[in-house]
Amino acid sequence: MSVSALAVPAAAVDAAPRVWFDGALIAADARPAGLDTHALHYGSGVFEGIRAYATADGGAAVFRLPEHLARMQRGAALLGLAFDPAQAQAAVLATLRANGHRDAYVRPLAWFGAGSFGLDVEGHPAHLMVATSATQVHLNGHRARLGVARWRRNPADALPPLKLCGAYVNSILAKREAKARGFDEALFTDRDGRVVECTGANVFLVKHGRITAVAHPDALPGITRDTLLVLTGAQERAVTLEELLDADEVFACGTAAEVAPIAQVEDRRYGDNPVTREVAAAYRRVVRGEDPAHRHWLTVV
Fold first, then answer.
1. What is 13-74 written as a DSSP string?
2. What is the pLDDT of residue 5?
3. pLDDT per residue over 236-290, tens digit each?
4. Which has the closest alpha carbon to 179: 142, 144, 216, 231?
5. CA distance 178 to 144
6. Alpha carbon 140 to chain centroid distance?
């Protein structure tokens, strides 16, 4: 089946959820991956987290879709995994239409499939799927509390800061530890006391009304982070944990988290978040097509 044939009009949407798998829309509860799938055993896959939004004109659009898929392509290339961004873009739009989603979280995943056990990826088939679901907010939409992780972020000279499946075991460990201590999320720092990022979000601080984006070579180059740099003109530089604790406001950002105010880092509690609210409001206007200057970031569904 051709990708173009999957452009299902909204009126033809079936009530049953669908996922895109290797060129066809199939039932969301289908299980096309075998137990000998290479990615299941070794993490040999790459994914993205993408958001679609209902827009001010009554339609829907995907936010910065080409940028997400370009980053996914970089990860796939490192693994030697075949990946076509044009095919993936068509699959994302087809899946959103088939499911009738406007406000949605979009998960494309490319991975190596069935074959013999071992670290070599050669000989394993490449697969691509796209799933969409009702919007999920990573930090639950409230002022989150961060615990500083005892785990270190994967160093960039060991694992590149891309959305490689296996790399996220690091985030799972850190978040489990933070939640066991009563926090909502973990904050990674390096051995020199510099802030890296959260388990799934980048970090900003506000001091005397000035916004600073935390920069660290081990952090994911976030697309939401880049968006906020453009919208706010924030400076980006290395930030120590001591400086973060001394900030007036702290917020995290990411595709799922959007702009999430931080209430607490360890024992340090922050007050009101007026600058964060302004940034969040500006971001909402952009993703919903209410800011004409940035409509080029939207791919219409």
1. --SS-EEEETTEEEETT-----TTBHHHHH--EEE--EEEEE-TTSSEEEETHHHHHHHHHH
2. 34
3. 999 999 999 999 999 999 999 999 999 999 999 999 999 999 999 999 999 999 9
4. 144
5. 12
6. 15
For strands 126-134 and 104-112, give the pairing: antiparallel
Q: What is the pLDDT of residue 278?
A: 97
Q: What's the pLDDT score for residue 3?
A: 35
pLDDT in the model for residue 8: 40
The candidate with the shortest Cα–Cα distance to 26, out of 127, 103, 177, 113, is 127
> What would you report as the CA-atom Rg of the chain, rounded to the nearest whole angstrom?
20
Do residues 62 and 96 lie in contact, with contact meaning Cβ atoms separated by under 8 Å?
Answer: yes
Which residues of the chain fall short of a pLDDT of 50? 1-14
* CB atoms inside a 10 Å sphere around CB 29: 8
Sequence-distant (≥ 6) Cβ neighbours of residue 90 within 8 angstroms: 3, 4, 6, 7
Quote the DSSP letter at residue 153.
P
CA distances in angstroms from 238 to 64, 213, 216, listed in the order given: 26, 8, 6
Q: Report how far Cα 15 is from the mean position of its chain's Cα atoms.
A: 27
